[in-house]
Every structure is written in structure tokens, then in C-alpha cells.
Amino acid sequence: MTTWTGHLARLVRARLGPSALVEASARADGDELTVARARLLDVLRFLKADPDADIALLVDLTAIEHPQPLPSETESTTTSEGASTSAVLLPPPRFEVRYLLRSPRLHYRVHVVVRVEEDEPIPSVTRLHPSAEWLERELFEMFGVYVDGHPHLRPLLLYPGFEGHPLRLGYRASKAQPLVPLVPLLGPNESARAPVVVDDAGAPAAPAPTSAPTGGGGGA
Amino acid sequence: MAERDPLLARSLRALLAPVLAWARRESLVALPVIGALPGPAMRAWSEEGTLPLDIPTDAPTPRHADALVVVGRVSHKAAPVLLRLHAEMARPCVVLAIDAEPGFARVPLAYGCVPRVEEILPVDVVVRGAPPRPETLARGLAALAAIRAGRAP
């Protein structure tokens, strides 16, 4: 496996200009390139088309949500620390959309990261990587990050009528939105539709001898 | 002739009742429905698990099946489909659910799944385990066959 730490960042900066990358760092399995939202398509197009990069495969696309401080917390921090430190303490953008790309020829991985706020759409990359079509639909329904230019941005895993975005930090994991009314379960003596429950606890210690002959020729 | 004579029809039905009960008990055709989190339950309801029990598990349509077997947990999205399958089955039919206890392996209940199949369907037998042992599944199927034999059409 080629050790290319920092190679891609230098390549992107040389070909697309220093403004194309916000930040670049090395990961154990490749490079991580943080790009500006406006330059995302340029960078991905370059990574795919350039023979030196040859990042042709989009493996995964997901997002990370950073917890946002409450308004009261930021106010108290700013007043106690002074106005000069308020810029340093600005919270990071709420979402970090990560494109996990791979070069099948060079066996190399790249994470391309775009940081966006809740109301900032990201451009669709389906024209570059058709495999992004389902991934972008999943991203939109799970995190609510709008993908601009997607051919049909309808829910992939969730169903029509589902409200909210379940992978956001604010969505309670147990908050179900059933399509079928759930019947509350009563105790075994209270309901006529209580099922017979069979579990491993009541199983005999040794297998019953009568069940053995059935297994031999039963399948034929 | 029996159609014209209600008394004869009733007598024939009473005469054939044990035979029908025997047939229902002995010829269980199952329609498996694989749920959203089938992992351990699927291991129990595999070909190796059901082959010694001589139960056909390949009903071509819900009308051909006697038993609806729900393997694993059902997602909220699939719940209406499961209800429609159950409605399409010929009566009398029985329902078997194979699933681990909710909260098994400290996995909390998620937003996407029905906690227990019993909450959306009238389930007759529930086989618990992750996966259940083969003899547990066999006991569950025996209980299912007994319930079906005693159920009037």
C-alpha cells in the first residue's frame, strides 16, 4: 500500500489553488480534505479525473452532527471571557458531511469533508458518482441536510408522513411514528390474544429421543 | 345430496372433524416473513433448522399458507404489508413470531421498529431466544400445530 500522506492535499492545492482546501490532515487510512462548500464539486471532479489522484469510487456518504451550545451558554462565556475571545469560541458548523472515497487502482482512501449549517444545502454529486443517489437521499432524510440538484430527493428508508430526522441529536431514539395502530399488551390473564410464549428456559436438558429419527430421511 | 339435507351435512361435518383436525395439525405450510432485524432469529429459522421438522416453508402465496411465521423484528414501514399478508391468508390461520426479547443485548428500542409483533397482529405463539435453540423452535411449532388443530374453520 502506498503511503501518500499529504500528497493529495499538495496536488489539490497545486491544481485548484490554495482556496480549494480549508484544511487537510492525515488519517491512518489516507487523507482527509476539508473543502469549502462552493468548491466541493471542483475538488471531487478533480480527484476523479486526474490520473495522479484516480479516486474513482464513492464508498460512503454520511454526516456528523456537532452539538450546538445553548444561546445562554454562549452569552455567559462571552461576557466572562471578554469580547476578544468570542471569535475563538464560536461553535463549529452544525453538520459535517463526509464523502468516503477510494481509489481501487492505488488502494488509497480519502475523506472529503464539507461543513455546513442546518439551512445550507450541499450540491448533489450524482452526476459525478451515480452511487451517491441513494446515499444523498439517506443523508437528507436522516440528517435533514438538503441536497441541491438531486434528481428525486424522496425518502429512501423512511415512509411518507414521517416527521423529523431520526439521526439528529435532538430526535429521541425511542420516538416511534407507527403506521399501524399499536395494541397495548395486557398481561397473560387479562387478554384473550395473549400468545403462548416458548423460550429456552423450559427446554428439556437432553433432546427427546423420539425427535431423532425424523431428521434422517425427512428432507428427501 | 348433503347440500340438500342440512342434517346429513352436519353429521358429515361432525364425522370429518377429527380428520380435518388431524390434517391441519400434520400439514402445516408456513409463509415466512423476514423482519427488519432478523439476525439471531434467522439463524433459528434456517433451512437446517426447519428441515428435520418436515414443514414446507415455501408457500407460493399467502392463500396457500397455514402459518405466518414472522422472523425477527418488524419495521414500522413493513407493518402495513404484514397486516395485508395476514388478511390475505385463508382461515383458520396461525401466527408464529420468532424474536429476541425487546432490549436484548442492551440494544435499546429504536424509532423504526415495532417493539413486539403482538402489538400489531394476533400472534398465537412466540418463540423467544437469540437465537432460540432448535428444540425450543420445535416446541413452539408443536404448540402452533395444536392450536391450529383445535381452531374451527
Written account of the structure:
The complex is a heterodimer of chains A (220) and B (153). Chain A has 220 residues and is an alpha/beta fold. Chain A is built from five helices and eight strands, in the order αββαβαβββαββα. Helices cover 22% and strands 21% of the residues of chain A. Chain B contains five helices and four strands, in the order H-E-H-H-E-H-E-E-H. In chain B, helix 1 runs antiparallel to helix 5 (134-149). The model of chain B has no long low-confidence stretch (mean pLDDT 78). The A-B interface holds A 157-159, 166, 171-180, 182-185, 193-200, 202-204, 207-208, 211, 214-215, 218-219 and B 51-54, 76-77, 79-80, 83, 97, 108-114, 116, 118-120, 122-129, 132-133, 135-136, 138-140, 143, 147. Strand 8 of chain A pairs parallel with strand 4 of chain B.
Short description:
Chain A has 220 residues and is of the alpha/beta class.
Q: What's the β-strand tally of chain B? A: 4
Quick one: biggest sheet of chain B? 4 strands, parallel
- Name the chain pair whose interface involves the most residues: A-B, 36 and 38 residues
Number of helices of chain A: 5
Which bin fits the share of residues in helices of chain A?
Answer: 10-25%
Beta fraction of the residues of chain B?
Answer: 5-15%
Percent of sequence in beta strands of chain A: 15-25%
Q: What is Rg of chain B?
A: 17 Å
Mean model confidence by pLDDT of chain A: 79
Helix vs. strand class of chain A: alpha/beta
The general outline of chain B is elongated
Order of helices and strands of chain B: HEHHEHEEH
